[in-house]
Structures are given as C-alpha cells and as structure tokens.
Amino acid sequence: MPRPILPSLLVLALTTFACAAHAATGPVVTTESGKVQGAVDKGVASWKGIPFAAPPVGDLRWRAPQPAAAWSGVREATAYGHDCMQLPFPSDAAPLGTPPAEDCLYVNVWRPAKAKATAKLPVIVWIYGGGFVNGGSSPPTYAGAALAKQGVVLVSFNYRLGRFGFFAHPQLTRQANGEPLGNYAYMDQIAALQWVKRNVAAFGGDASNVTIIGESAGGMSVNALLTSPQAQGLFAKAVVLSGGDGKSADPGLAGVEQIGVNFAQAKGIAADDPQALDKLRALPAEQVVDGMNLANRAPQNPATYSGPFADGKVAVETGAAFASGQFAKVPVMIGATSADIGGKTGFMVAGARSLASRLAAQGVPVYEYRFSYVADSIGKTGAQHASDIPYFFDTVDVKYGDAVTKKDVAMGRAMSAYLVNFAKKGDPNGRKLPAWPRYAGDKDVIMDFAADGKPAALRDPWGAEIDAATAAATVAAGAQ
C-alpha cells in the first residue's frame, strides 16, 4: 500500500523548517580553522568562544601558544569559553562570567549586524586587567555590543595568568631549545593579535586598522606590546588605561628560573630531579594557582611567583625601549583615574603623565586624559582604579543597573565616542564632542572627564605637584 502523501509532505515541511530555523539562529563566518555561527541581538552580531590557539594543557603547559585544531561543519559560537585558570577575586572590578580553566585561549567578536564582510570597519582589541593573576574576557562590563553599534569591530580574548602566564625553570629553558619562554601571557596576546590579522576581515574588520586597548595589567601589556619585537605591525593605535610608565623591576631569566625552582620545591619537587618538568606539568591546575590572587599576592620568601620579565624576544625592558625610541610610534591615548593606585603623585597617574610626555617628545600623537567622574550612585569623591572601563565601553547600565543615571549614561556616550573616533582615525575628536587637544609637554593640556559629568580640556592642575614628586623620587633613588 503506498504511503500517504500528506504525512510525507508534512515531515518534509517540518524538516525544512527546522533546517531553516537552525540556519537563521545566527550569522556564519569562515575562519582559518573552520566555520563559526554566532548570534544577533539588538542590531549587533557576535561570536564568542572561538579558539585562537590550542588548549595550553598537558605538554603544552608552559609552551608558546600552538595553532588551534581545525574542525569540520559549523561550530556554535554563542557562549564565552572558559576564562583562564585563576582563583577568582570577588572584589575585582568585573567579576568573571565563566568558571576558570586551563583550556582558555578563546576570542570573541562583535560587529554591527548589518555590516557586510567587506565593510573594513576599524577594529578595537580589548586586553583585560587583573594584576596578571586575575581577569578574563567574559565579564558583561567588557561586552563589545555598545561599541560595535558605533561602527567598529570589537575583539576580546583570554591570556594565561599567574604561574601559567609567567614561569621559568632550568629544565624548561633546556627544553625550549631557543623557543621563546617565560612570558606566556604576552605570547598569548601576540597570538591573539596574529589571529585578528589573519581572520578579522571575515568579520568585516580592517586588519590594517587595529587599536589595542588595555587597563591596569592590560595597560601594562599595551606598553609591552608597543615595545615587543614580535608585536610590530599587528596594530595601528594603542590605548593605555592605568598602565603606569612602562618601567618595572626585572629579575632576568636566571632570577625567574630560581623562582620556578622555589615553587617546584614547595611542591616537593627537588631542583635536581630529572623529572621535575614532567612533575610540574602533572600538577593539578589548582596546585599551580596555589591560592594566589589579587587579594593575597603578597611577596613570599623565597619567592614562588614572578610576573613579566624581559626575555629579549617577546618582552624587552619597556622603560629603556621608550627612552631610546625603540617602540611602535603609533597614535596613543593614555590616562588614569583621579584616585588611582598610588594617588595623584603615584604609579598610575604620574606614570601616565610621564609616558605621555616621553612619547610626545618623540613626535608620537598622544592624547592624555584623567578620569575624575564618579557615578552618582557611589556617593564618593575621587574615581577609583578601573572605574573608567564601563564608560569607555559604554556599559554603565550593565555596571550600575537600576542605579544608573542620565549623567552616568551621558559620560559613557561621550567617552565611548572619543574611543571610537580614535580607533577610526587616530584622533579622538569628532562632531558634538568638546575638543581634545593633542598632548604637548609645553602646553600640558589633558582631557579631564570631570566630576560634574562633562569632558573638559584643561592644563593639568596636578602637573607641577606630580613633577616635583617625581623629581624628588628620582633623587632619592639615585642616593641609594
């Protein structure tokens, strides 16, 4: 007996509808490793959790990032990948949105939904902070949708942290056989920027117009990338939020190796153990973290953790590189918050002023800012460290929720517009925005995102005080 035609047609129709529904769930882009399907929400297309390198686990722990494996079919890319392994810090500026894991080298992309693949939009790449021991790309405050609506492609990514991101050991050095070692966090950042260069055109971005932006440890990372021999040509502009002046104490490779030996010994692995490296790589990830985060990163004796150091290949001594002119001379936006770490004459505020002066003196287009605005709901004076981030991202509504005010939103609109303008043309100025002059040491004019909620260009009111404190510190250091 022949099968009824109507049920067969119904099955075919339902199957067709299901396939069409699946196809309509999000835009598909072809990357170098395979196709990824994202999502569209409120006029913005996004793709999350795209691998830009192989998972740095097992034998790849403490190795330079390796190529991501290709996949067949279409990979769903609608959720963040794991943030990198750490002990989360509850009081951080942007709490994580995913559980941390070693398998964490993922990138996220946002663009205007209607933009074509041939749009060649400016690209902004975000590098999070967290003292190199905390942080990730998943916090909602760091989402790129609001910036994408202004006509850019926003990219964020994860990089290894703590002892996963910075580690050396004599056996690692011997095994490396000339391969870069130690600064794995910076290697991840460079690998992510290389991924952007190779793939962002498929998302509608312009690989020749990339702006890197980072805050705190991310700002320090931008300083490092500006001077890294391996990062040259990967970006065209840079934004440093609370990144200091580029100077840092450096124990050198031998010192970092000894710190690695100290950590191994703390885990019962002798310095002369021929299997030390295998045993270190076999440690559970939680034991490598060993309870360290921003809250309890106090110096130990003997030391068992060291952050970035100059290896001469990936990272150089940034202070010396800036002083000698050995850096990427691209337009730079730089600044700090008014109540940043160290106060008005300390590390962040004075560091931003010092680096702005140094770069401007070498002909680099520099735009310096100070963030003095405090959200109405906070009820305090002085803008704390990292409080400028949601304004540059235009995510103050996410940060402050129902407590957000029209004044908060207006400041976010202005600051994000300055950032987008800078990404588009290397100059933050644009229609309807107060003029932001290029920084020059003799004029000393900065943009103050002022406490009254209005951006204002003015001669740095703290300039003389900061310079006097810096001079006194230099004299005291020379006398020691």
Automatic annotation (TrEMBL):
Highest taxon above the source species: Bacteria
Keyword Hydrolase included in the entry's annotation: yes
E.C. number: 3.1.1.-
Transmembrane segments: none
Any Pfam family: COesterase
InterPro entries, per database record: AB_hydrolase_fold (IPR029058), CarbesteraseB (IPR002018), Carboxylesterase_B_AS (IPR019826), Carboxylesterase_B_CS (IPR019819), Type-B_Carboxylest/Lipase (IPR050309)
PANTHER family associated with the record: CARBOXYLESTERASE
Name of protein: Carboxylic ester hydrolase
